[in-house]
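Contributing new complexes? Match this layout with molybdenum atom.
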Amino acid sequence: MSEDSPRLIDGKIVRGENPLNLEMPFEKLDSFITPIESFYVRTHFPIPKIDRDAWWLRVEGEVEKKFAINYEELLELESRTIPATLECAGNNRNFLEPRVKGVQWELGAVGTAQWTGVPLSILLDRALVRPSAREVILEGADGGMLDDPKSPPGELRFARSIPLSKARADVLLAYKMNGSELPPEHGFPMRAIVPGWYAMASVKWLQRIIITDRPFTGYYQTMDYAYWRRRGDIVELAPLTEMQIKAEIAKPVQGEIVPANSVYRAHGAAWTSDGEITKVELSTNGGTSWSEVNSIEQAAPNAWRLWEFDWRTPSKPGKQILIARATDSKNRTQPIERDRDRGTYMINHLLPITVEVR
Ligand SMILES: Nc1nc2c(c(=O)[nH]1)N[C@H]1C(S)=C(S)[C@@H](COP(=O)(O)O)O[C@H]1N2
Ligand SMILES: [Mo]
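Output block (do not edit by hand):
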């Protein structure tokens, strides 16, 4: 290993230890389901140690019947298993120019798991939500002090909200990941899975669900995990929600030496929100021409689609620029340029990589 190769924990790239942030080396992508050992980890505070037998999930706010439920009781409720891709809203941040603050993720703050749990709608039904209700706040058990001058004084907890309609539609309270008990770093004993949304909404270590009649404007909803939205000449902060369409190349990697005059299997993944990936194209000449790649699986809602392409490499040695581009069933595709209103998040513009044919 060269001196500047990143430090690894369990094969994942260490982006921070306090709090713990680990990235999957994206070149390791080789299956639709990301194994737990490879799945990226994003935390803002120390991982809370939760005793399952002492843990309660409280449901309160704009409801007729607030209640608390424990782990055992939750496991007895009707459950569902769904595949869902989680992507951190700051994935690919390391490639932004000019450079911005934040965890310097490259390609691997994304993964797909099978999540098993209780539909949130079941708990909302049990609580008898009032007609005045608009949003559902999901609160984690983790918290602490931030050194951001814009953070509130004292301690705060990680919390995000979702519209009531989304909460009722497909949000899962997951206690299993890929068939195993949810690991501590991924939210034990229970986390939310908000399909199709950037993963900050999928609150881990869930301890409280608060139904409200007005928009939630907490720290992680407005000061952080927000972008600039324009209404005519008005510019306002809006919370990040759905994932933006994106294709990523797992292999070759930036700077890889690729044999000339041979067939090289390029591959990667593509995902979107509220739609299906219908096409992924690859350019091996810096965007001059594009070829459609093969999709490996059927498209599944809210999950990535792996793709591959047999690239007949040039016989002449030299640098080649590769770019992948996805299109979905709503005919959305990736922007060419970075939109600076997105701040340090939602990074899905085309990302060229250079390889050397030798
Ligand atoms: N309680 C809590 N939930 C959280 C977070 C957190 O710090 N605390 N981080 C969020 C962010 S920003 C991401 S990207 C995902 C990461 O989930 P993972 O660590 O299971 O990959 O969890 C989300 N849920
Ligand atoms: Mo994130």
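Reviewers usually confirm one structural detail per submission. For this one: The helical segments are 71-76, 120-127, 164-169, 219-222.
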